Amino acid sequence: MGFRFHNLYSVHRRLAALHIHPNPTGEKIFRLGLAADIGLAAGKALTGYLSGSTAIIADAAHSVSDVVLSSIALWSFKVAKAPRDKEHPYGHGKFETLGALGISCMLLGTAGGIAWHALDILLGMYSANPEVGQSLTHEHVHNHHHGVDMEHPSLALSMTVLSIAVKEGLYWITKRQEKNRVVD
After folding, report:
1. What angle do CA 177, 27, 24 make, to 5 degrees?
2. What ranges in the chain are assigned the alpha helix state H?
3. Helix 94-128, helix 54-80: angle, nearest 10
4. Where's the Cation efflux protein transmembrane domain (predicted)?
5. What is the structure's pLDDT at 85?
6. What integer is the mean pLDDT of 168-176?
7. Are 50 and 152 in contact (CB under 8 A)?
8. Does the pLDDT at position 1 exceed 70?
């Protein structure tokens, strides 16, 4: 959960860099983050497939959602900064608000989908095997193992470390840009 928050925070930080001083450098940082998210999504999907790690595959799906949300944020920002015209005498600023509304709706829909899926699995497990409910409250039956079910765990670990390094690098690039803009 914390890692997800950090990713959303980094998207908002990059967007904030565009707002503080809308310039080509701020937009380049946002595009760099978008390109990194695309690369991470592809790398995680391939790594998850090759290593057999469902956690890495789930993180790849999360990275794809970051790409979609970042694309919407960048698009709405670019449309919002368009100059006034006859049809929009007050400018296009509301497009950014519409983009934020769209992102919020997508996040709420995703959360609802995850909750629905989890509830469906739990109810399916309980209806298929009523003893599951009893074992949760009384005793834990050990007819399974707690080992790692991956073919290449070092590959999955390497991708995780790379992902953290890329996201941390993006954070520091964005922070440095914000600091340089405040000084200017």
Report:
1. 85
2. 2-20, 24-51, 54-80, 94-128, 131-137, 153-183
3. 160
4. 32-179
5. 84
6. 90
7. yes
8. no
User: What b/e sequence results for 105-140 when a residue is b if at least 16 CB atoms lie within 10 Å of its CB, and e otherwise?
Assistant: eeeeeeeeeeeeeeeeeeeeeeeeeeeeeeeeeeee
Query: Which residue's structure tokens are 């109810």?
Result: 123
* Residue 147: predicted pLDDT: 52
H or E stretch including 136? helix 131-137
The model's pTM: 0.64
Gap between the Cα atoms of 15 and 11, Å rounded: 6
pLDDT, tens only, 17-30: 555 445 567 678 88
Measure the CA–CA gap between 169 and 164, rounded to whole angstroms. Answer: 8
Q: Among the listed ranges 83-92, 130-139, 169-178, which one has the minimum average pLDDT value?
A: 130-139
Q: How many residues are recorded in the chain?
A: 184
- Side chain identity at residue 60, one-letter code: A
Q: How far is CA 183 from CA 96, 159, 177, 179, in A?
A: 27, 36, 10, 6
Residue 10: how many other CB atoms lie within 10 Å: 20
* Residue indicated by tokens 């050990």: 142
CB 99 within 8 A of CB 71: no
